[in-house]
TrEMBL record:
Higher taxonomy: Bacteria, Pseudomonadati, Pseudomonadota, Alphaproteobacteria, Rhodospirillales
Residue ranges occupied by any AB hydrolase-1 domain in the UniProt entry: 30-264
Keywords: Hydrolase
CC annotations in GO: membrane
Example of a GO MF term: peptidase activity
Designated name of the protein: Alpha/beta hydrolase
GO process annotations (BP): proteolysis
InterPro entries per record: AB_hydrolase_1, AB_hydrolase_fold, AB_hydrolase_sf, Peptidase_S33
Protein's organism: Aerophototrophica crusticola
Parts forming coiled coils: none
Amino acid sequence: MQVAVNGIRLWFDVEGPGLVPDGEGMRQRPTLVLLHGGPGFDHATFKPAFGALADTAQVIYLDHRGQGRSGGEDRSTWTLAQWADDVRAFCDALGIEKPVVLGNSFGGFVAQEYLRRHPDHAAGVILSSTAARMCPDLIAAAFERRGGPAVRDAAMDFWNDVRAEKVEAFSRTCMPYYTAQQPADGVPGRRRSLQKPEVLEHFSGRGGEMWQMDFRDSLRGTRVPVLVLAGDLDPITPWECAEELVAHLPPHLTTYHRVPHCGHGLWRDDPDGCFAVIRSFLDKVA
């Protein structure tokens, strides 16, 4: 499905009802809006796993502007501010009040900008395998822990000069280390995604916004509950980055869940444990 938002059409999909029968009436269930990683991927990396939460919440998969099946080819609008404003406008267009917004990886950057720009809009936010800022030294060390010096060097060659034509080689060499199981094609679901590496180059290349962002100060002003998920085996948003993020959130609003045997996106390595934590958070904030 598509909906007009901020001058473009955003693509989305839905699993699970928002209202369910409850005795003689209807009961509202929480709405979970999923923000995918990349940038340059789409919602497919969440499927089919997140369908498991459709018994608890209405699950909405959203393709960011300029990515997946969504419109928005103007590169000047490929910014965290615009992507975050799109989340707010998307919810308003569909009449979604007090969503729970889950951002994974790059989607977590968008979710932090959404928190900064629209601090009271969500019922809660889940920051999954993400960081308040990029820390190249920590990333290099994490890739070396996972794959040794050769994988570290390949990863940093890519991240020091991100270009669209280098994405496929990086995906083959380094992305299998994103998860504990090391699938042959890298992050599960990547092959199903409609990939747009030009968006990654725009955002993450030299001088791109990814290297300039720093949410540490704005996180201190967070006014809604936040769940932070991190895996000890994650090489691209290492657990040290998650703990820095947590350190800048208000303690009374923050739940932190770090798992030793998981990589990038806890549900990929421990779906039962990950979804149990998310269900508990949904129950708490709904």
